[in-house]
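Hey Z.,

So I finally got round to the iron/sulfur cluster thing we talked about over coffee. Here's the setup:
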Amino acid sequence: MRVEIDRRSGFCFGVIKAIKSAENELKTTDKLYCLGDIVHNGMEVERLEKMGLQSVSRDEYMQMKDCKVLIRAHGEPPETYEHAKKNNIELIDATCPVVLTLQEKVKGSYESNKDKDGQVVIYGKKGHAEIIGLDGQIENKAIVLESINDVSQIDFSRPVSLYSQTTKRVEDFYAIADKVKSSMQPGVGLEIKDSICRQVSNRVPHLKQFAKEFDVVLFVAGHKSSNGWYLYTICKEENPRTHHVARTSEIDPAWLDGAESVGICGATSTPNWLMEEIAEWINQRNPS
Ligand code: SF4
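And the result:
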């Protein structure tokens, strides 16, 4: 059986930066907290936990003081920084530069349209850490659209600045943008800010091709990874024998029945070592 790992899958630079920051700190500190899971991949979280990284929830963080806390790539709202200042918490800030820039832009749109009663609208998932961080920049006034059906929440007689969470589908964002555009009242301002990170969307054409080249595709990603589900869907559309797995124990050996080739790929939050582990698991059961 031919088993191949997609060399373009795996961590994006934002995640690499966050994990390197954690590993560097853990060389000299025996206890480092992380606000939320450092990456949406349970296996990588477990690996770093063994080195001394402990995930804490937002509620737990708000009770903490006198410690070191890592901020992951998704970014945080201003209240996180204010709490650290007041409570002697040293922050290791690993917010992805792409997210930091987006936070600044969202804030800029909000400030510049405040006197015109403007609305900042973000296509994303309510409660997602990145959305909490963005909303926090603008006094939690963002209108978050989870789908095109939510555009009715917008007041089309007031100016709109439309953004996207970095990991959303480009086509879905532009479908929403078109609907908003056609619904705006004449003469009312609309700015469409495509803020989707190309670290995710640029992988789409390549993954489409990759998925077609194998009898079976195993897409490796944590169940909480939104870009994981997105990229998995892309592969599944190209190859119906694509399966989403977070670890080897989730593989059903029957999936491989009759297959002569297996492609392994993953999300921007999937560690390479995990894809290697999965390849090894298959090779041991299906020696070539
Ligand atoms: S997907 Fe893009 S925005 Fe998100 S962490 Fe990676 S590089 Fe940063």
